[in-house]
Amino acid sequence: MRLRKQELGDRNLVGARVEAARKKKGMKQKELLAQLQVNGVDMNASGLSKLEGQIRFVTDVELVALADILEVSVDFLLGRAQQ
Fold it and tell me: Which pairs with CB-CB distance under 8 Å and at least 24 residues apart come from 47-53?
């Protein structure tokens, strides 16, 4: 497992929760990317890494797709609810 080279950013609220939910499901970033593409969200590995590192903004379409794929609520990803 590679460690993050950059410090966490402040461009989104969901990155850390996306990463935690993905890891809880035992899903690799590559698998999440494939599921995103199946759901019509075009994102590359760098984009996902930056999203999880809170360095990149998240669109509403991406947020909904991530919640569906990770089987969590949008409110959970936004930090407004517990899982």
Answer: 50/9, 51/12, 51/14, 51/15, 51/18, 52/15, 52/16, 52/18, 52/19, 52/22, 53/4, 53/6, 53/8, 53/9, 53/15
How does pLDDT run across 22-79, given as a tens digit for each residue?
Answer: 999 999 999 999 999 999 999 999 999 999 999 999 999 999 999 999 999 999 999 9
Q: What is the distance in angstroms between the CA of the first residue and the CA of the last residue of the chain?
A: 25
Best CA proximity match to 32, nearest among 14, 52, 58: 52
